Amino acid sequence: MSSSDIFISETIGTAVLVLMGGGVCAAVTFKRSKAFNAGWVAIAFGWGFAVLTGAYIAAKSGAHLNPAVTVGIAIKGGIPWSEVPVYFAGEFLGALIGAVLVWLTYYGQFRAHLTDPEVLAGHNGEEGMVDPAAAPKAGPVLGIFSTGPEIRHAVQNLVTEIIATTVLVLAILTLGLSDNGKGVGAIGTLLVALVVTGLGLSLGGPTGYAINPVRDLGPRIVHALLPLPNKGGSDWGYAWIPVVGPLIGGALAGGIYQVAFA
Amino acid sequence: MSSSDIFISETIGTAVLVLMGGGVCAAVTFKRSKAFNAGWVAIAFGWGFAVLTGAYIAAKSGAHLNPAVTVGIAIKGGIPWSEVPVYFAGEFLGALIGAVLVWLTYYGQFRAHLTDPEVLAGHNGEEGMVDPAAAPKAGPVLGIFSTGPEIRHAVQNLVTEIIATTVLVLAILTLGLSDNGKGVGAIGTLLVALVVTGLGLSLGGPTGYAINPVRDLGPRIVHALLPLPNKGGSDWGYAWIPVVGPLIGGALAGGIYQVAFA
Amino acid sequence: MSSSDIFISETIGTAVLVLMGGGVCAAVTFKRSKAFNAGWVAIAFGWGFAVLTGAYIAAKSGAHLNPAVTVGIAIKGGIPWSEVPVYFAGEFLGALIGAVLVWLTYYGQFRAHLTDPEVLAGHNGEEGMVDPAAAPKAGPVLGIFSTGPEIRHAVQNLVTEIIATTVLVLAILTLGLSDNGKGVGAIGTLLVALVVTGLGLSLGGPTGYAINPVRDLGPRIVHALLPLPNKGGSDWGYAWIPVVGPLIGGALAGGIYQVAFA
Amino acid sequence: MSSSDIFISETIGTAVLVLMGGGVCAAVTFKRSKAFNAGWVAIAFGWGFAVLTGAYIAAKSGAHLNPAVTVGIAIKGGIPWSEVPVYFAGEFLGALIGAVLVWLTYYGQFRAHLTDPEVLAGHNGEEGMVDPAAAPKAGPVLGIFSTGPEIRHAVQNLVTEIIATTVLVLAILTLGLSDNGKGVGAIGTLLVALVVTGLGLSLGGPTGYAINPVRDLGPRIVHALLPLPNKGGSDWGYAWIPVVGPLIGGALAGGIYQVAFA
């Protein structure tokens, strides 16, 4: 497959992933949303089915949608290292596009929320996304774009992201999923989606399970750039953790695979 | 396959889709329902499994069940344009039948609800379906039949429906699902059902995700015609949005498919 | 396959179905249960996965587990009519065994609940199973065994059960599931389980979706016979509806299949 | 397959199972977790998808992950009895590792919880895991590691664990799943995961459904050894029930399989 085919497929697939994933965070955050306060089960399944949808659409390129997955697959030998930058570029661009699409889909809700006196008074109405005490510089809608920790502690947060991502990528590698960028089997993609749902339910509590560098960094950049009134800070101090942690986890999974299963 | 086979299959499948989808809205709306207030997770899975059931029953005709899907498949070349009106007709008739079946299934509940003084006093008891402030002319059971916006703004609502439908139809087209009206694979239909569940969780917040012209228009007509006491208005001012938005989304998905994946 | 093989397989499969289905009703009903008040989503998925488990275990005999399904399959010609009594007998015995197993599994909870002064004072603690106003003669744990209507009206309740069962059996027949008693495909059984979950979410509101004569009648007999203190009445006045309604629905689905899809 | 391959595969798979299963208990228990109080539906799906993830990763060795499953498969003749100790050893070591990983993932939450005056005053903040009245010697985080009964009664609790495990192992044996340690089919593993979710919803109410000796005993040992402040007792008086009950259930399922289905 040509580099441009990989790039286009990963861009579209990651855009859908971030659109739907960010969408479910928006859906439970905004008071004027039909899914307001629908809870963590909604978020975990929402992100799982976001992976499902994005992965089917991007099956042509193997549907990595995540640099941590790309790293794990490259270590396993599933793709040549020369293709890694192409995957990264498509994933990153897709995450930017997806975050903008969340904003367009929920444009009216963003406006109403960010001009709501209650929200501005500190009751940000978010459902389990960013704890204002832990993240005093995180604005009231940042949780729709990016993750944040419940208890802020760099080493601890990094460990959590590493563990969760290692499980994700190990499950993908042992499925033979995404191998060689040849596209994924239908059942395999369903399984990965449910693994992601499971990771959200089980290991998402402390940090909101970024487990994907571009899923966190791309929307954070969009949050910083969008012309939203009263949007507050983008919490750049935390931004490196959901990038570095997942990359380490992906590499660790690749290593475990080579040692224990290859 | 003959036109009458397509017509019958799409009619029955869409009737089941709208019966079960409208059914879950009824189930969470009525106080005297065992699923009262079961929340948005129930609605999102209810609609997803409504698609699952209708799509398996209509597998013979490819189980479009949705004019936006038919348009996308026609653009891709999956069916000849001459069959499009046959699909549309079956889908539309099925939606009418499905809405009547919801009424029959919940007949006692409709009666009790629409003669309940609390409901008539403005506490319409609906769970996240139609915001009375946003839809002053929407009656207290309209949300069981048709969608309505949380924040009423034509352009914004249209954009939301277009984005959500584009994702739906693009996922269907990239699955190779429904191609040529030859019937869908078992796994493919499951996946589409979960994509619909995911879209409900993630992008359903602002408008209630019609993402299907007949799913909204057919039941709205039935709402207008049924002899329900105190049923209130059918909100015809909004009716064009969940028709036009999904059709644009279906066409857009067809175009993206041709450009990026064909 | 021999009659005794069919009988044993259907008995075990239906016992598992009723054990797990009754179990989830017990789980949400009893205060001293970890799933107390877990809500309608828990019940709908609990019954769906009860079908899944029972159906896999009884795959050898086609996993009908439900006389309404047996009737529909016989009308379609999937099994000879001479085998119908064997299926019925296994299904009925299995339902009796399953209800006894629910009692054994939750023995401590039954005792605590039925000697709890609050429950005996009329606060029966049940979660959406039997409305005491609608069912004054239904005891405080009957909802764990059998269904009851939210609004008691024979014709209306019958119509609801007929519609829901017709959808169930039509979905099974169009899947080619259970044909000839040869055992079901793995995906097909998953789909039927999710159809049942969907029916619970969407059409279970008015009557609690028996959609299976033995699932309701068998446990009702066990309720009448078990030596439970303060168990109250078994609501025999309602008992015919979840038997007759599903049988009509199964036959109707068989007829629709023959006319529209055969 | 060599013994060391079995051992490594079962160790890693069981570690993932216990990490994710313990993780979801942690996620709903801790106030400073995004999934706090997410309820029993979250727990049941969390454990189901923990099985899914662990089982895919350990497919190479048949993914028993549970001595009760190993016993059932050995009785069926799926593996030679000489391999049983190897499976047991891997499963046990994996459970220890998994419990330690839960602690690492939620390290900050454990610290905050066990120094929270409200928790120490007896409001242990746990969501449906261990009833303090029933388990006066169970510490405030024991429910994250091991199961405990809602109503403490050895015979009753044993019966509940036996029934639930019998259903689990019978479903696995009739699937032909895990046979011969040759690895499991993709759909089969999904089904087992949903069976486990269903068992949690339906039969988990009284005892928290250990249904796996190492899943309970391993983490209980880790609970006893970890340097957690104010962690309280490990409830060793109950510890034998979730070991003996599931082993009996596994053997019973093997026997039923041989008699009824072989």
Structural overview:
About 5% of the residues of chain A have low confidence. In chain A, α1 packs antiparallel against α2, α2 runs antiparallel to α9 and α8 packs antiparallel against α9. The first copy, chain A, contains eleven helices and no strands. Chain A has a single domain, classed as Glycerol uptake facilitator protein. Chains A and B meet through α1, α2, α4, α5 and α9 of A and α2, α8, α9 and α11 of B.
CATH topology of chain A: Glycerol uptake facilitator protein
Instruction: Please tally the β strands of chain A and state the result.
Output: 0
The shape of chain A is globular
Question: Which regions of chain A have little confidence, pLDDT < 50, spanning 5+ residues?
Answer: 125-130, 177-184
What oligomeric state do these chains adopt? Answer: homotetramer
CATH superfamily of chain A: Glycerol uptake facilitator protein
**Major beta-sheet overview of chain A:** none
Mean pLDDT of chain A: 91
Largest Cβ-defined interface? A-B, 46 and 41 residues
Euclidean distance between termini CA atoms of chain A: 25 Å
Proportion of helical residues of chain A: 55-70%
Structural class of chain A: mainly alpha
Give, in order, the helices and strands of chain A: HHHHHHHHHHH
The CATH architecture assignment of chain A turns out to be Up-down Bundle
Radius of gyration of chain A: 17 Å
Structurally, how many domains make up the residues of chain A? Answer: 1
Can you count the helices of chain A? 11
Strand content of chain A: under 5%
